[in-house]
Write a structure and sequence with these properties.
This protein is mainly alpha-helical and 206 residues long. The protein contains seven helices and two strands. The two termini are 36 Å apart. 26% of the residues are buried.
Length: 206
Amino acid sequence: WWGAALERSMTVIQGGQTSKRRASADALPLRFPRLRFLDGGPWGAVTAKELRYFGREPRRKVTLVNSVLFGVALPVWAALRGGADQGSKAVLLASVAGYIAVLGSSNQFGLDGPAVWLDAVAGDTMRSVLVGKNVAVVLEVLPIVTVVGVATAALTGGWLYLPAAIVLALAGLGVGLATADVVSVLSPLPLPESRSPFASSGGGQG
């Protein structure tokens, strides 16, 4: 049964013809088809892995939800509270989503747990791992900043501040992720044991 199942998993049926599945990027699409600019090397694979984890791993979803909530709530609150002149400047607060994401990145290896050892024993891969994680955070945050900035600009008429908000978000991500990388390498922390549904019961194994 095991042999038959293995043979079946390696077989592709297309147009009534059977052919062997080959271990290639086409047979196993690790990268996202819409993100073709991702490198085919290690850091591109790490980016693809991190982006998938954002949608599958509950603890990473918490960081994403916090970025969305703060990124939306603060600009809208400032736009509604400010007057006609001050309300347009609320577009600059769209960059807040990036700063919240940076706070969640200050422990880059904490969520990986024991899987970090796979990278450690693989050799000189930490640079690729950190680059992949950083690119994933940028790809996660920039759409939020752009959408919130456009919505706030449409609400307040502050289109003049939209480019500045995006530049602020990029600058904040650059400085914040640089600091987070150093902190993550010099002072990595295993996540505490918790029964929370947003934290794994084996979080301290790393």
